Structures are given as structure tokens and as C-alpha cells.
Amino acid sequence: MGRSINGRVGRVAVVLALPIALTLTLSPNPVLADPSPQAGQVVPDRQPSTDQNGVALLRIVVPDQAAVDRLNDMGVDLAEYKKPLDNGIEVHAVLSPQEAQDLRDQGFDVRGAISDQSDYAQNQAERKSAIMSAQATADETDTLTPLRAEWFTSLDDQRFLSVEVKSSATDAETVLTATWDSGPKTAPDSGGTATMSRFTDAGQYMYHRFSAPLPITAAPTKVTITSSRGGSVTVPVNKWLGEKRKPPSKHYVEDFVDHYMDPTEVTGRITSLARQFPNISQIIDLPNKTNGYRRAAQAQFGTVTASTFYVTSKAYGSEGGNDIGVTVAQPTTASAPLSIAVAGKNVTVTLATDAAGAISSTARQVVDAINADTAAAALLTASTYRGNAGAGLVAAAPATKLTDNLKAPPSVSRAPFQMKALRIGKKRDGSKVGVFLYCQEHAREWVTPLTCVETAERLLRNYDSDPATKKLVDNLDIFIMPTVNPDGGTYSFYDYNMQRKNMTNYCPATSGDPASRNSWGVDLNRNFTVGSLFDGYSGASSSCTSGTFAGPSELSEPETQNEVWLTHQYPNIKFAMNTHSYGGYFMWPPGAYKTAGRELLPRVDFGTENYFWDASSHILSAVQAWRGTGIWPGQTGPVPDVLYSAAGNSADEHWFNRGIIGWDFEVGADVYNPATKQFDAVGFQPDFAEGHEEAMEFANGQLAILEVARSFSDDNDRPKSKLEVTGRTDTSATFTFTMDEPANVYYTLDGSRPTLNSPRLAAAGMREGAQQITVDKTTEVHWFAVDIAGNVEGNYKPDGNSKSYRNETVKVRNVR
Q: Where is the Peptidase M14 domain (predicted)?
């Protein structure tokens, strides 16, 4: 497989400010209908309202997979979610009220909302509260309140230390460190030092502690706790005479995120980590800067389609476009000509009048006049509304400032974003097996960057105290890219929470009006080169306003170019994990097919498929260990088997072009409701208490992937295989091969020496195990097995002259 597997599917353009009637089509090569209003329909002359026109995440129940594929091909903005029901399949889609009604009109069963803008407002309020709390103490020394400090004995007098301290700084970036002595009159740090874990309950900070009591060699008298904020306190350590406890096998700290973070915060976080841990980490500046969180400034004039025009600044709003003003004036004289005047950054359109003094300028005439005026054209361009002929008369309008409508605070840069990756490893010279963890290809998936950040924090802060973490960092080369889509991520946080794509606008003037702005951008997980829209594969769109717009060409976007650059720059990368949300899936390549005949990209070989399955047990057990979440077997497997086609996704890119073994998480598994005895979907942006739990459990999963990679790097064991006859008739025999680990078997039936060019054991079918081989005469079978790490059975040399391959004769009783 190769790439992140998330089949995220296209969406109907969400045109937020207009009551637009969309006409969805079910044609084999669908084109989204022109979202223009009906003749004479009123359109607003200002930007969309903050309620985002009722956009919500809704349930759709369809009878079968063919109907899912139809929605996908129509460009409906499907989530990465699919659940079987007794009467069909439930999928989720981001829809405006009009889009939902259009689907209902075409017979689709569109049901209630999973989340809407009230949930978005609540998330933003919670996030704001958490940030304000952190900012309130950011420049102040925190106060530490000791709760408990005790030592005790257990298991044949083994001593343990337990400390609990509360900081007045409640944010997750506050790190407490405990240092203790080794008895009376000893040095304050002679006993040891350890980072404390931040303990939260239901998303609320409680205090810091050790996750488990620390084993110590001598009873300390005092412990000093210091904070990264500057606070410090020293307290006596008392002997505790309570219940004995089983000693921990390790000291481990976790839980380093306490609110949803925008891409600027996330990137600052990994940069700070690299500064704190320079011996085992570094920042890689990726070569291609993004387009930036920026837009041209715009203004719209008119209330009726034929009479409406809009203007767009040549400069981005943040670079002067927001300073431009446009006035549409009516002269006081009859038979006045249409004229354009420019003073500085103010453009005045004086409309023409007829002999009676009434306005006679049409929208088309105004647009042409503005674009023909050299001074005005240097500042902006004008367009009729969505390609309309513009035959309606224009109304006068007061001075109006153009605006880019971007709402992020000034602390968020509008400039092209410098994407960064955090590289973690004791030896970062390419000699160790590389693992690439990347998150937030899709902007609205707010939990995913937290997962990557949490993983990075755990690796770095546990390195000195946890032997298992030290082995990972010492023996792997780990690359973490917590936000692949920083521009879109910022837009999702501050402007339109359901934004999926980046912010690069490829739309022509006919769909470039202000009310279309939430539909612009490229779906980064449809912009890669393998199994792409441009190769005829399904699950992506050529419409610039579709949620799965593949872009103008493969790898057109700097964000996707950066992903590919990283895997080529560091060819030691052998494993990858693309983290998306939501639904609770664990998937791998191939990720795309052509709808006609379901022509699938080549499946991975049988040995690699078994490796994916075997590794999934370890990885998903780690996810489950956090709070018991189980990823269903039906939602584990190659992308198209459990979801739908995702043309041009990143996992296929990395697997087919670089041989990188890659998985895809869809965090946010359904949560069981004991009252209703049903599983409830969580959505892209659950309340933070749920989002926090998702980040924690899937950080567990990311670390388990590192453990899988480390086992791979240490694998020197040669596989063992055997031939098993599974059936006989009077005239034939059927057999297959079994292996003691995931491996590929190469075999011959003609008595020749097997090589890597010989036939290879395949899968019998999707999830059906190994193929059965039938012979109609007594046959000498020669074969050998090769595991995923390249170890060859029996030390056989396929490219040499060795005859140390396996061989066995399969007998057929009667030969006619």
C-alpha cells in the first residue's frame, strides 16, 4: 500500500451566503451544477454570516456500496466514515440545508445531525478558555502546591517514591521535574530526578504525579519540584504505612495536550521541543512554503443576479487588498457617461444615466469599464456574478472596503507557511530504519495534530527515564509532521470549521465570488501521483469547488510536494502512518479503484498483506489499552475493502513509488452509549474531553507502530515454511503453503530452481487466506520463503547456484 489511506470523498460545493439551489447529478462523469441562483433570485451584497448558513455533519443511509460510490462520484463531501446497518449503510456528509434537501429530493435518506455550528462554537469557547488560562500564567512564575510526598516499601522491602504537586499554571506545556536526596545529609539530587506526569480527569487538569511510584534505592528526606515556568518548592518526604503496591516496570509520562491547537501553535510546539532536546531531535524545514493563510480582498455589489458584480483585489488582503475601497455613484445629471476614477486606493464608479436621469449602466458594462481602466485594473479585477451575462442595471452603493474576510488573530501569520518536521533519534544519519508519522492532511480533523504532538512529547520526555522509549529513539529515525495542511487548518479554526482542503484557489471568475470562498482549495489527499483522478481512478473531483478537488495536476501543491520530498530525501524511511479522523479505522494500500468494473490498484503481495494484519494486532491492542476502544475487524484492512476509493492518496504514493509500508488511522471510533445500547459517531471536532481521549489512545497506536518498525530493524530470523496438501481427488491434488511469520513464497512446478522471478503465492481473495494450487499429475514442488525484512528461508541464495531450496513431491493417485 503506500499511502495514507483515507478515502475522503468529495463534497458538493458549500456556498454559504447564498440560498442556492444545487442540482446534483448521477452521471458517470459528474460535473457539479452551476451554483447560481434562479433567475431574479436575491443574493447578498455582504459576506456569509457567522452561522455558516446552517452547515452540519449529517447522516445518510443508503442501500448498498454502489450508492456510496454514487455519492462519492457526485462530489458529496463525505466523511471517512461508513457503518453497516440492517437496512443498508450509514455514511456521513458535510451539507448545507439546501444540499441536504437536494439529496432528499433525489431519493437519498438524509437524517439528523451529528454536529453543527453550536458544537463548533462550544469547542472554540473551550479552546479560548484554555488558551487564556495558559496566557495568564505564561509570563508569570507559577506557584506549586505540594499535595503528597511519600516513600514506602513493597515486595521484599523494595522502596518506592510517590509525589503529587499542583501547579497554578494548568496548561499542558508546564512541565514539573522532581529531584530528591538519598537520605539525611546527602546531596539534594543524589537520589535521582524524574519528569512528572500531568494528571487530568474528564479533560480537566488535576495535578502532576508519577504515573506509577518510582523504585528508589534509599529513603529520601526531601524532594524538590521545579517547574518549566520557574516555580519551585521543597518538601519533606514522609514514610507511608499504607497498602503495598506492585512496583511499576517503568516510569512513563504522558498527557501533554489540553486544548485544540491551531497549526501555528502545533508548529511552535515541535520547534520548542527540538530546542529542549537537541541531542536527540532536530527540526527539518521543508523546502516548499505553502500559499499562506491569505486571500484576495473582495466586495460584492447588487441583490439580483443579472445586476450583481463583484471586485477582487490584485494584492492579497493582508498585503494591501483590504485597504481598497469602491464607491458606485449615481450622477445628478442626465445623459452622463459611465466613468471610472481612482484616487489612491479608492475607486469610484460613476454610473451612466439616460436622458431622464435614470441609471443606464448594466453590470457587464461596469465590469468592462473597471477592467479597461489602467489605474483601477492595477488594483483589482471585476466580474459579473458567476458568469452571468450581466444585463441588469446596477444600483448605486456607498463606499465599500474590500476585505479578505479572514478572522484569525494578528498572531497568526498570513505569509506563506514554513512547514516543519520534527526528526527524533539518537543517531540521525540515515543508518537506522525511518518512520514517518504525519497528521492533518485534512484541515477540519482537529484531533490528529494533537496525536502527533503527544507522540513527540512522549518520545522526548521519556527518553531518559523509560528504557522502552530509549530503545525506540536509539534504534529508529523518526520523522513527525504534525500538520500537513497548515493554511487549511488555520482556516478551519477561525473561518469555516468544516474546511477540508488547503487554501489555494484555482477557481475561475465564474465561481470565484465571495460567497464561494468556503469551497476553494485542493484536497491534499487526492493530489498525489498514484491511482489519481488523472489516471481515471475514482474518489476525487475535477471541480474546483468539490471537497475532493484533486487540483489542476498531480503534486500541484507545495504541501504534497513536501511529503514526497521527505520520503525521497530520507530513503531510510520504511514505515509511515497517516492519521486522519473520524470513525475508528485502521487501513492500508491499495486505496483506489476505477468504478467501472472496480479496477483496483494492485493489491500488496500476500506476505506484506499478512504483515499488515499481524502488525494490526499489536498496534490496535495499544490503542485499546488507553480506554478500551476496540477498532472493529470490519474497519481494518485495505482502504477500498472497508471504506471507498480515494484516488491520488498519499499512502499509495509512498507504497507504490517508494515501497514504504504505511497505515492510515481514522481516529474517533464510535462511542458506545449504554443507555441506547448503540454506538454514537463523534465527528471531526468532538468536545475536547473526547478529542483528548482520542489523541491519547492513538498516540499509543503511533508508538506501537514504532515498536513494529524496531522489531523489523532487528529481524534476523529466517522464515520457515511447509507445504500442506489440502485436498485430493482421483485425478488431482490441491496444496498450499503455510509460514511461521508473514512471508512470500516463490515456487516452481516444473522441476526448475525457484528464484525471485518465479510464481509467488497469492491470496485466494479478499480476506480469504492463501491461494490453493491444484495439479493434475504428480509434481515436484520447489520453493523458498522470504520475510518482509528480506530474510530468506534456509539461507538460500535465489540469485546464485545454491540448491538449498525446499522441495516436496505432491502425488496424484490416478493419471489419465
A: 378-709
Interatomic CA distance for residues 436 and 2, integer angstroms: 12
Q: Which of 101-110, 519-528, 638-647 has the lowest mean pLDDT?
A: 638-647
Those residues with Cβ within 8 angstroms of residue 562's Cβ, 6 or more apart along the chain or in another chain: 286, 287, 288, 419, 481, 484
Cell matching residue 297: 480582498
Band of residue 676 on the pLDDT scale cut at 50, 70, 90: confident
How far apart are alpha carbons 420 and 289 in whole angstroms? 10
Using alpha carbons, select from 223, 208, 214 the residue that is nearest to residue 254.
208
- Across the range 486-509, mean pLDDT stands at 96
Q: Other CB atoms closer than 10 Å to residue 297's CB: what's the count?
A: 28
- pLDDT for the residue 52: 63
Say whether the peptide bond before residue 590 is cis (omega within 30 degrees of 0): yes
pLDDT for residue 755: 96
Phi-psi region of 183 (alpha: psi -120 to 50; beta: other; left: phi over 0): left
Q: Which helix (H) or strand (E) holds 131?
A: helix 117-138
Mean pLDDT, rounded, for 426-448: 97
Judged against a pLDDT cut of 60, whether residue 752 lies above it is answered with: yes
**What is the bridge-based pairing of β-strands 325-329 and 346-350?**
parallel
Nearest C-alpha neighbor of 527 from the set 500, 495, 552 = 552
Task: Identify the sign of the CA torsion 631, 632, 636, 639.
Answer: negative
Mean pLDDT of all residues in 758-775: 90
Gap between the Cα atoms of 745 and 762, Å rounded: 9
Residue 59, pLDDT score: 92
Cα–Cα dist 693/570, whole Å: 32
Residue 165 clears pLDDT 80, i.e. is over it: yes
CA pair distance 747, 758, nearest whole angstrom: 6
Plot region of 705 (φ>0 → left; ψ -120 to 50 → alpha; else → beta): alpha
Q: Which of 771, 754, 757 is nearest to 807 (CA)?
A: 754
Catalytic residue among 80, 164, 457, 666: 666
DSSP state string for 49-98: PTTGGG-EEEEEEESSHHHHHHHHHHT--EEEEEEEETTEEEEEEEE-HH
Each residue of 381-405: pLDDT tens digit?
999 999 999 999 999 999 999 999 9
- Sorting pLDDT into bands at 50, 70 and 90, what band is 11? very low
CATH 1.10.1200 fits 721-810, yes or no: no
Q: How far apart are CA 659 and CA 648, in angstroms?
A: 16
The three-state secondary structure class of 332 is: coil
According to the model, what pLDDT value does residue 246 have? 39
Report the mean per-residue pLDDT for the chain: 88
Answer yes or no: are the C-beta atoms of 687 and 608 closer than 8 Å: no
666 is catalytic: yes
Residue 386 one-letter amino acid: R
Q: Is the dihedral of CA 363, 367, 369, 375 positive or negative?
A: positive
Pairing mode, strands 296-301 and 309-316: antiparallel
Domain 140-239 maps to which CATH number in 2.60.40.10, 1.10.357.10, 3.40.50.300, 1.20.970.10? 2.60.40.10
What pLDDT, in 10s, does the model give residues 788-812? 999 999 999 999 888 899 999 999 9
Helix H, strand E, coil C: the string for 176-197 is: EEEEECCCCCCCCCCCEEEECE
Helices (H), 389-504: 447-461, 467-475, 486-494
What is residue 45's predicted lDDT score, i.e. its pLDDT? Answer: 35
Cα angle 87-89-90, degrees, rounded to a multiple of 5? 115
Q: What is residue 639's three-state secondary structure?
A: helix
Q: Which residue has the cell 471507498?
A: 644
Q: Cα–Cα–Cα angle for 222, 228, 232, nearest 5°?
A: 35
Q: What percent of the chain has pLDDT over 90?
A: 69
Q: What is the pLDDT of residue 201?
A: 60
